[in-house]
């Protein structure tokens, strides 16, 4: 049984030419290039959603951006003091 599906898309000729050139330069197939673009798109959207979620939660609690930055810095400092990096 196939684990992939075929997708047909339309692109303006200039965009197709740029994509083909990128694929050629990177020794990749067009499918690999499109998969990579979709993964990157998903990653960016995930971070945007997490950022919006965090902003909403901070607003609910009346926290300002400096309050959040300070809290993040404190947590990172506490973690660093508990889990020091090994020296070489």
From TrEMBL:
Q: Could you tell me the Gene Ontology terms of the biological process aspect for this record?
A: regulation of DNA-templated transcription
Instruction: Kindly give the Pfam families that the UniProt entry links to this protein.
Output: RHH_1
Gene3D superfamilies per UniProt: Met repressor-like
Q: Which domain of life is it from?
A: Bacteria
Query: Which stretches does the entry tag as region Disordered?
Result: 58-88
Under what name is this protein listed? Ribbon-helix-helix protein, copG family
Tell me where in this chain the Ribbon-helix-helix protein CopG domain is found. 5-42
Instruction: Name its species.
Output: Candidatus Accumulibacter phosphatis
């Amino acid at each position: 049984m196939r684990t992939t599906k075929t997708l047909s898309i339309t692109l303006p000729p200039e965009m197709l030419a740029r994509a083909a050139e990128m694929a050629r330069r990177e020794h990749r197939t067009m499918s690999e290039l499109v998969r990579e673009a979709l993964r990157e798109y998903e990653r960016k959207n995930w971070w945007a959603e997490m950022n919006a979620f965090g902003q909403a939660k901070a607003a609910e609690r009346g926290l300002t951006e400096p309050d959040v930055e300070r809290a993040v810095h404190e947590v990172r400092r506490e973690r660093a003091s508990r889990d020091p990096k090994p020296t070489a």
